[in-house]
TrEMBL record:
The lineage of its organism: Eukaryota, Metazoa, Chordata, Craniata, Vertebrata. Pfam families: Cast. GO terms for biological process: neuromuscular synaptic transmission; regulation of synaptic plasticity. Its main location: cytoplasm. This is Uncharacterized protein. It is found in: Cytoplasm, Cytoskeleton; Presynapse. It comes from Alosa alosa. GO terms for cellular component: axon; cytoskeleton of presynaptic active zone.
Amino acid sequence: MEQKREECIKLENQLKKQSEIMKGHSLNLAQSVAQEAQANPELAQKISVLEQEVTRHREDAGKAQNEVDRLLDILREMELEKSDKDQKINELERQMKEQGKKVANLKHKEQVEKSRNAQLLEEVRKREDNINESSQQVKDSLRQKDERIEELEEALRESVQITAEREMVLAQEEAV
């Protein structure tokens, strides 16, 4: 696009120079031709042909100028489109950066949450182990108490039996 713009500017400058040169030549030529045309009819005919060529060159210059203007308009439109697209690209890049930051933030929060959950799970497991250990201690303590109760019951039975036997022996001795 830049290259096209430079070409258009060069063409426009060339057209301006040619127009100025032709205007200058036209005036000078017209004055000198008018003087000599009066002197020579053959020269008048050549002047007429040259004037037609000048007119044709002017028309060509006008057409070329119109084409340069058209190309410059196209170039301006293309530059506007490029500017719009650049703005859209910048906006999309900005949005992508924002989304990237949000994603990174969410990942960080997720990592923190996972870490916290892992800690909580570890604490729950420790408590469960402590509860199991305490439960086992309570069971052991109850088993020991049950065994002690059985021992005491057995001792009580033996004591009751011995007392009963003594009472029988005493009752027999009293009866005798």
